[in-house]
Design a protein that fits this description.
Strand content: under 5%
Helix content: over 70%
Number of strands: 0
Shape: elongated
Distance between the termini: 25 Å
Structural class: mainly alpha
Largest sheet: none
């Protein structure tokens, strides 16, 4: 698996956990341990991607944009994970995870607009 692909797996796992909780609020919430694993996976993937050697200036610029966008997403993952771990009801979970989803959308839009 490549490093860029590794970046998106933890985001997908967290989004899936949020969606699952929203669809079944009476179901069990993900464990704090499993959510911490997702966060650690995101941190590790970002660290590996950040130091990838990229010779082409255009690709280096795209790498930098992706790192910046991912940092913004990562900064908002904790609030969503904390709400999930607390077993918050869907309205509270939606509020806590809105920043995460907004940052993912902004990162995707930025990447689509990249030259």
């Amino acid at each position: 698996m490549d490093s860029a692909q590794e970046l998106f797996q933890p985001l997908g796992r967290l989004a899936s956990a949020i969606s699952g909780r929203a669809e079944d609020p009476e179901g069990s919430a993900p464990s704090r341990e499993s959510l911490d694993e997702i966060i650690t996976e995101a941190d590790d993937a970002l660290a590996r991607f950040r130091v990838l050697p990229v010779a082409d200036p255009g690709l280096r610029a795209q790498q930098r944009r992706l790192v910046e966008g991912y940092e913004s997403v990562r900064a908002r993952m904790d609030a969503a994970a904390d709400s999930l771990a607390a077993g918050d009801a869907p309205p509270a979970l939606a509020r806590a995870s809105a920043g995460f989803f907004d940052a993912v959308d902004a990162m995707a839009a930025d990447l689509r607009e990249a030259p």
